[in-house]
Amino acid sequence: MIDIFFEEIETLTELNPDFYESWLDQVANLEKKKLGDISLIFTSDEHLLTVNQQYLDHDYYTDIITFDYSEDDFVSGDLFISVDRVSENAVENNVSFLHELNRVVVHGVLHLCGYKDKSESEEQMMRAKEDQMLQLI
Protein backbone atom coordinates (compact mmCIF):
# COMPACT_ATOMS: atom_id res chain seq x y z
CA MET A 1 0.00 0.00 0.00
CA ILE A 2 1.25 3.47 -0.89
CA ASP A 3 0.53 6.40 1.40
CA ILE A 4 1.40 9.98 0.48
CA PHE A 5 2.14 12.65 3.06
CA PHE A 6 3.31 16.27 2.98
CA GLU A 7 5.43 17.83 5.72
CA GLU A 8 6.12 21.55 5.74
CA ILE A 9 5.09 22.01 2.09
CA GLU A 10 1.93 22.55 0.10
CA THR A 11 0.12 19.49 -1.21
CA LEU A 12 1.20 18.41 -4.70
CA THR A 13 -2.16 17.89 -6.35
CA GLU A 14 -0.69 16.18 -9.44
CA LEU A 15 0.32 13.10 -7.43
CA ASN A 16 -1.88 10.05 -7.89
CA PRO A 17 -1.55 7.34 -5.20
CA ASP A 18 -3.16 4.75 -7.52
CA PHE A 19 -0.48 5.41 -10.14
CA TYR A 20 2.30 4.92 -7.60
CA GLU A 21 0.64 1.76 -6.24
CA SER A 22 0.40 0.23 -9.71
CA TRP A 23 3.84 1.33 -10.93
CA LEU A 24 5.75 0.42 -7.77
CA ASP A 25 3.99 -2.95 -7.66
CA GLN A 26 5.42 -3.59 -11.15
CA VAL A 27 8.86 -2.48 -9.96
CA ALA A 28 8.71 -4.83 -6.97
CA ASN A 29 7.53 -7.73 -9.14
CA LEU A 30 10.38 -7.22 -11.61
CA GLU A 31 12.78 -7.42 -8.67
CA LYS A 32 11.05 -10.62 -7.49
CA LYS A 33 9.64 -8.82 -4.46
CA LYS A 34 6.17 -7.96 -3.20
CA LEU A 35 4.96 -4.44 -2.54
CA GLY A 36 4.46 -3.86 1.16
CA ASP A 37 3.67 -0.57 2.87
CA ILE A 38 5.51 2.43 1.47
CA SER A 39 5.06 6.00 2.67
CA LEU A 40 6.07 8.80 0.32
CA ILE A 41 6.73 11.83 2.50
CA PHE A 42 7.24 14.98 0.46
CA THR A 43 8.95 17.79 2.31
CA SER A 44 11.27 20.80 2.09
CA ASP A 45 15.06 20.97 1.91
CA GLU A 46 15.23 22.28 5.47
CA HIS A 47 13.05 19.56 6.93
CA LEU A 48 14.97 16.81 5.11
CA LEU A 49 18.26 18.33 6.28
CA THR A 50 16.98 18.05 9.86
CA VAL A 51 16.03 14.39 9.27
CA ASN A 52 19.46 13.78 7.72
CA GLN A 53 21.23 15.34 10.71
CA GLN A 54 19.03 13.71 13.36
CA TYR A 55 18.88 10.14 12.06
CA LEU A 56 21.94 9.72 9.83
CA ASP A 57 24.37 12.23 11.36
CA HIS A 58 24.85 13.79 7.89
CA ASP A 59 25.00 17.56 7.52
CA TYR A 60 24.06 18.07 3.88
CA TYR A 61 21.06 18.44 1.61
CA THR A 62 19.84 15.43 -0.31
CA ASP A 63 16.89 14.59 -2.54
CA ILE A 64 15.81 11.43 -0.69
CA ILE A 65 16.31 9.55 2.54
CA THR A 66 15.07 5.98 2.65
CA PHE A 67 14.14 4.18 5.86
CA ASP A 68 13.94 0.47 5.11
CA TYR A 69 11.35 -1.65 6.95
CA SER A 70 11.37 -4.49 4.41
CA GLU A 71 10.89 -8.01 5.69
CA ASP A 72 11.37 -11.21 3.72
CA ASP A 73 10.22 -10.47 0.16
CA PHE A 74 8.00 -7.51 1.12
CA VAL A 75 9.36 -4.09 0.14
CA SER A 76 8.37 -1.57 2.82
CA GLY A 77 9.69 1.73 4.07
CA ASP A 78 9.45 5.49 4.41
CA LEU A 79 10.78 7.64 1.59
CA PHE A 80 11.42 11.25 2.62
CA ILE A 81 11.75 13.35 -0.54
CA SER A 82 12.83 16.98 -0.80
CA VAL A 83 10.62 18.71 -3.34
CA ASP A 84 13.16 21.58 -3.40
CA ARG A 85 15.99 19.22 -4.46
CA VAL A 86 13.75 17.51 -7.02
CA SER A 87 12.89 20.89 -8.55
CA GLU A 88 16.55 21.92 -8.79
CA ASN A 89 17.59 18.52 -10.17
CA ALA A 90 14.86 18.72 -12.83
CA VAL A 91 16.15 22.09 -14.03
CA GLU A 92 19.76 20.93 -13.90
CA ASN A 93 18.98 17.73 -15.84
CA ASN A 94 16.56 19.45 -18.24
CA VAL A 95 13.65 17.13 -17.41
CA SER A 96 10.16 17.74 -16.09
CA PHE A 97 9.53 17.99 -12.36
CA LEU A 98 7.32 14.88 -12.48
CA HIS A 99 9.96 12.85 -14.34
CA GLU A 100 12.60 13.75 -11.76
CA LEU A 101 10.17 13.10 -8.91
CA ASN A 102 9.46 9.63 -10.30
CA ARG A 103 13.19 8.97 -10.68
CA VAL A 104 13.77 9.84 -7.03
CA VAL A 105 10.80 7.73 -5.88
CA VAL A 106 12.00 4.66 -7.78
CA HIS A 107 15.54 5.29 -6.51
CA GLY A 108 14.21 4.91 -2.97
CA VAL A 109 12.23 1.80 -3.85
CA LEU A 110 15.31 0.27 -5.45
CA HIS A 111 17.16 0.87 -2.17
CA LEU A 112 14.33 -1.05 -0.47
CA CYS A 113 14.93 -3.86 -3.00
CA GLY A 114 18.55 -4.05 -1.90
CA TYR A 115 20.39 -1.85 -4.39
CA LYS A 116 23.18 0.37 -3.10
CA ASP A 117 24.86 3.42 -4.65
CA LYS A 118 27.99 4.04 -2.61
CA SER A 119 30.57 2.87 -5.17
CA GLU A 120 30.83 3.97 -8.80
CA SER A 121 29.75 0.52 -10.06
CA GLU A 122 26.79 0.44 -7.66
CA GLU A 123 25.77 3.92 -8.77
CA GLN A 124 25.92 2.88 -12.44
CA MET A 125 23.74 -0.15 -11.70
CA MET A 126 21.29 2.03 -9.77
CA ARG A 127 21.03 4.53 -12.66
CA ALA A 128 20.45 1.69 -15.15
CA LYS A 129 17.72 0.24 -12.91
CA GLU A 130 16.11 3.68 -12.50
CA ASP A 131 16.03 4.10 -16.29
CA GLN A 132 14.57 0.61 -16.73
CA MET A 133 11.82 1.24 -14.19
CA LEU A 134 11.00 4.68 -15.59
CA GLN A 135 10.35 2.97 -18.94
CA LEU A 136 7.38 1.23 -17.31
CA ILE A 137 5.52 4.54 -17.04
TrEMBL record:
<keyword id="KW-0479">Metal-binding</keyword>
<keyword id="KW-0540">Nuclease</keyword>
<keyword id="KW-0862">Zinc</keyword>
<dbReference type="Pfam" id="PF02130">
    <property type="entry name" value="YbeY"/>
</dbReference>
<feature type="binding site">
    <location>
        <position position="111"/>
    </location>
    <ligand>
        <name>Zn(2+)</name>
    </ligand>
</feature>
<dbReference type="GO" id="GO:0006364">
    <property type="term" value="P:rRNA processing"/>
</dbReference>
<comment type="function">
    <text>Single strand-specific metallo-endoribonuclease involved in late-stage 70S ribosome quality control and in maturation of the 3' terminus of the 16S rRNA.</text>
</comment>
<dbReference type="GO" id="GO:0004521">
    <property type="term" value="F:RNA endonuclease activity"/>
</dbReference>
<keyword id="KW-0698">rRNA processing</keyword>
<keyword id="KW-0963">Cytoplasm</keyword>
<feature type="binding site">
    <location>
        <position position="117"/>
    </location>
    <ligand>
        <name>Zn(2+)</name>
    </ligand>
</feature>
<keyword id="KW-0690">Ribosome biogenesis</keyword>
<dbReference type="InterPro" id="IPR023091">
    <property type="entry name" value="MetalPrtase_cat_dom_sf_prd"/>
</dbReference>
<dbReference type="InterPro" id="IPR002036">
    <property type="entry name" value="YbeY"/>
</dbReference>
<keyword id="KW-0378">Hydrolase</keyword>
<dbReference type="GO" id="GO:0005737">
    <property type="term" value="C:cytoplasm"/>
</dbReference>
<comment type="similarity">
    <text>Belongs to the endoribonuclease YbeY family.</text>
</comment>
<keyword id="KW-0255">Endonuclease</keyword>
<dbReference type="GO" id="GO:0004222">
    <property type="term" value="F:metalloendopeptidase activity"/>
</dbReference>
<dbReference type="GO" id="GO:0008270">
    <property type="term" value="F:zinc ion binding"/>
</dbReference>
<feature type="binding site">
    <location>
        <position position="107"/>
    </location>
    <ligand>
        <name>Zn(2+)</name>
    </ligand>
</feature>
<protein>
    <recommendedName>
        <fullName>Endoribonuclease YbeY</fullName>
        <ecNumber>3.1.-.-</ecNumber>
    </recommendedName>
</protein>
